[in-house]
Amino acid sequence: MAAEEIRRLGEVPAANVGDALRRMTVMDGGIRLVTERATLLGNALTVDVRSGDNLAIHRALDEALPGDVLVVNGHGDMTRALIGDLIGEIMVNAGVTGAVVDGAVRDVRALSEMGVTVYARAITPAGPFKDGPGAIGVPVAVGGVVVAAGDVLAGDADGVVVIPRHRVQEVVDAVGGIVEKEEALRQRILAARSTAVAR
């Protein structure tokens, strides 16, 4: 699929992308935006780590491609930050556009200043261990959704939606109609309000 078609998924609300997937691959509300930049779109670079340990994240970034999104199953652990400003610098250098972490992060002000988009379950100043083990490129569970390497992630201030690779074209084809239908309904609501005020 052409990159410009995929970019369409980043130009509409994440909620509309989720609607196109019948709301089945939307991450739970515990995965929240923690940086100022509120747009996310890219291919999943998946990492499974031991709770509180980010060695595999460092290794994954050695394999990162521009446009990737780091997707980390930190097993919901909120006691140790798996990503901070130093990993943020590596992400920027590699062209990684953002990260989604089912766990904790830190240095969120610095990450915001770098322009990366980061979602996480928690923020803590406590740093991680670097002992391993971990796995890269395997399916991971993040925010209650299974993410496979190469799936497309779309996010905004509301949260993150996972578009399975084999469904990207389906979602691209459907999302325009969903946006148009919502806009038509919005216009009807506004027209009804104007009529009521006029009375």
UniProtKB/TrEMBL annotation:
Annotated keywords:
Magnesium, Metal-binding
Describe its assembly: Homotrimer.
- What Gene Ontology molecular function terms does this protein carry? 4-hydroxy-4-methyl-2-oxoglutarate aldolase activity; metal ion binding; oxaloacetate decarboxylase activity
The cross-references to SUPFAM superfamilies, in alphabetical order and at most eight, read: RraA-like (SSF89562)
The cofactor named in the record is: a divalent metal cation; Mg(2+)
Under the heading InterPro entries, the entry gives: RraA/RraA-like (IPR005493), RraA/RraA-like_sf (IPR036704)
Against CDD domains, the record matches this protein to: RraA_family (cd16841)
Residues reported in the UniProt entry to bind substrate: 84-87, 106
Report TM segments: none
Q: Which family does it belong to?
A: Belongs to the class II aldolase/RraA-like family.
Which Enzyme Commission numbers does its entry carry? Answer: 4.1.1.112, 4.1.3.17
Described purpose of this protein according to its UniProt entry: Catalyzes the aldol cleavage of 4-hydroxy-4-methyl-2-oxoglutarate (HMG) into 2 molecules of pyruvate. Also contains a secondary oxaloacetate (OAA) decarboxylase activity due to the common pyruvate enolate transition state formed following C-C bond cleavage in the retro-aldol and decarboxylation reactions.
**Protein name, please?**
Putative 4-hydroxy-4-methyl-2-oxoglutarate aldolase
Q: Which PANTHER family match?
A: 4-HYDROXY-4-METHYL-2-OXOGLUTARATE ALDOLASE 3-RELATED
